[in-house]
């Protein structure tokens, strides 16, 4: 008896297997389908990157009004499902023009279809010839979070026809009589990615001796830091990025930017409040306002503009998925801050002379560059002299037309680190080395006397400290902020000695 039942079951299984006579229904939708009906989803489906996919229904009655299906309704949409999709773990919801369908979509195994076939059915749609342009959406989600096979995108949900792009869905559009049925392929098209960018622009005011200019290394360093912070926040709030865009940075001389793309505006919105707080906080951080001197030397006279917006040419930016602007979002008293060093605690120079910047026409570039010294163990740290406009060219200081001598703030307890001084007026072929020369013990002053440079010799002239290569300028130059040394330029009367900082870009960037 038991054997008989087994034999019967086996026989039944064989009967259920597709027979040659049913071969015409071995393919989706597994019943007779394929006459012209008025319904189609032309073009593509839109994806919003959050599991929602939408198509627009087109109603175009056949040219021959006598066609049997010319006035058919649209009751059902059936979709061929990828056999690998874990339908038990996938929830599908459907809406028509935003209204949930009367009956929830469901998966079923069509009778007589080859093993593994699965179909998704949306039924009782109640659509007809008047529904041209209706927006039909399905939203996919996993029943249990983290279910590995749940199909939350069209690539995993739909069985694409051979040769079609993954994510192409084949749908049967069926009427109430089941006689009018058209097959439609809907190919996936995502809207193009929308970039969101962060922009950093140090804006010079008249108080800046020269505008801040990014070189490629500084820009990379700044944008790496910014990306690190933004990436961390994206991970912390679980915002999803558009996988078609690799985040990138871009630098012009005055603007550093970092760009990426969220998978939808809703993902970007998760960082909106954080971004506003960030630009307000970073605007102060970036100029060194929270340090003892309230300003990084390389940004003296600058304001910092920081913006989150879309991709464009600064400052003409479209909106992005995050929008913030430090100048707007910060309280006005902060937004108006110009980087101005507080030098009230500075103990240099010891001599009495006018240290006001722009008192004479002689100044210095904000970056010091390094060169090899005379020995393998020494390095030249070079100031580059600049000719500026004196603030009052008719004043006694402003009339100065000779760079008589220079002095540099340095720690005379570390005088053994200074191996030489090298100078090179503009136009001279070679550096000229001199022995180190220090002021009286306790003056903390390195002397570079008897320059007597004309403005032509001064503009682009170099004054270099030859130091042991391992010297830390924060220590040797005594300022203790940002690898910066201070130099002043005297006129012949020694009454005028405008004082300027210059920063070793190599030490600052950590080489
Ligand atoms: C997905 O995004 C679209 C467009 O932003 C939105 O209309 C829809 O409500 C979202 N759906 C879900 C489930 O979040
Ligand atoms: C229109 O359809 C009817 C019914 O199928 C058919 O008899 C007729 O020949 C068709 N007319 C044209 C112009 O195709
Ligand atoms: C980077 O910025 C420069 C200067 O603004 C611009 O010419 C260039 O197109 C930008 N590159 C990219 C990849 O955005
Ligand atoms: C930021 O806001 C300021 C103040 O409203 C405005 O002048 C500036 O153009 C804005 N920057 C950008 C890039 O939109
Ligand atoms: C120093 O020079 C500046 C600019 O020439 C001038 O405005 C200022 O009054 C001078 N200071 C002193 C103490 O003489
Ligand atoms: C100095 O002032 C003149 C006249 O205002 C101007 O043309 C020139 O660019 C200025 N030079 C510098 C280095 O600022
Ligand atoms: C500059 O230095 C080179 C190599 O050390 C030397 O040959 C040359 O004579 C020097 N030129 C001058 C003008 O001192």
UniProtKB/TrEMBL annotation:
The keyword Signal applies. It holds the Pfam family DUF3707. Keywords: Signal. InterPro entries: Pherophorin (IPR024616). Residues 28-181, 349-498 form the Pherophorin domain. Residues 1-23 form the signal peptide. It comes from the Eukaryota. This is Pherophorin domain-containing protein.
């Amino acid at each position: 008896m038991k054997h008989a039942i087994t034999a019967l079951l086996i026989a039944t299984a064989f009967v259920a297997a597709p027979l040659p006579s049913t071969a015409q229904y071995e393919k989706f939708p597994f019943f007779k389908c394929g006459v012209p009906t008025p319904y189609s989803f032309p073009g593509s489906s839109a994806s919003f990157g959050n599991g929602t996919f939408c198509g627009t229904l087109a109603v175009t009655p056949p040219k021959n009004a006598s066609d049997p299906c010319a006035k058919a309704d649209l009751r059902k949409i059936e979709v061929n499902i990828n056999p690998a999709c874990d339908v038990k773990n996938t929830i599908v919801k459907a809406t028509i023009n935003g209204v949930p369908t009367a009956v929830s979509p469901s998966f079923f195994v069509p009778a007589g279809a080859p093993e593994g076939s699965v179909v998704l059915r949306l039924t009782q749609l109640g659509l007809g010839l008047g529904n041209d342009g209706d927006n039909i959406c399905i939203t996919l989600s996993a029943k249990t979070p983290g279910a590995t096979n749940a199909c939350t995108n069209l690539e995993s949900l739909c069985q694409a026809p051979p040769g079609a792009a993954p994510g192409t869905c084949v749908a049967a559009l069926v009427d109430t009589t089941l006689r009018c049925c058209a097959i439609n392929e809907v190919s996936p098209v995502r809207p193009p990615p929308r970039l969101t960018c962060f922009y950093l622009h140090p804006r010079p005011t008249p108080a800046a001796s020269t505008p801040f200019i990014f070189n490629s290394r500084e820009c990379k360093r700044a944008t790496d830091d910014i990306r690190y912070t933004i990436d961390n926040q994206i991970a912390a709030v679980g915002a999803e990025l558009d996988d078609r865009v690799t985040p990138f940075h871009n630098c012009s001389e005055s603007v550093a930017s970092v760009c990426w793309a969220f998978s939808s505006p809703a993902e970007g919105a998760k960082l909106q409040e954080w971004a506003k707080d960030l630009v307000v906080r970073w605007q102060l951080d970036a100029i060194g306002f929270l340090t003892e001197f309230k300003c990084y030397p390389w940004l003296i006279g600058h304001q910092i503009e920081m913006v989150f917006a879309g991709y464009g040419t600064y400052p003409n930016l479209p909106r992005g998925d995050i929008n913030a602007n430090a100048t707007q979002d910060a309280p006005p008293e902060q937004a108006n801050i110009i980087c101005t060093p507080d030098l009230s605690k500075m103990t240099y120079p010891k001599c009495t002379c006018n240290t006001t910047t722009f008192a004479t026409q002689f100044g210095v570039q904000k970056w010091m560059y390094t060169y090899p010294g005379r020995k393998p163990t020494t390095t030249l740290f070079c100031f580059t002299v600049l000719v500026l406009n004196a603030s009052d060219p008719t004043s006694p200081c402003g009339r100065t037309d000779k760079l008589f001598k220079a002095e540099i703030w340095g720690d005379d307890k570390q005088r053994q680190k200074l191996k030489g001084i090298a100078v090179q007026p503009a136009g001279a072929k070679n550096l000229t080395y001199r022995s180190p020369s220090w002021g009286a013990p306790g003056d903390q002053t390195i002397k570079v006397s008897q320059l007597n440079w004309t403005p032509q010799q001064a503009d682009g002239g170099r004054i270099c400290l030859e130091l042991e290569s391992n010297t830390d300028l924060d220590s040797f130059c005594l300022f203790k902020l940002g690898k910066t040394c201070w130099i002043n330029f005297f006129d012949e009367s020694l009454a005028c000695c405008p004082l300027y900082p210059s920063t070793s870009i190599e030490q600052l960037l950590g080489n």
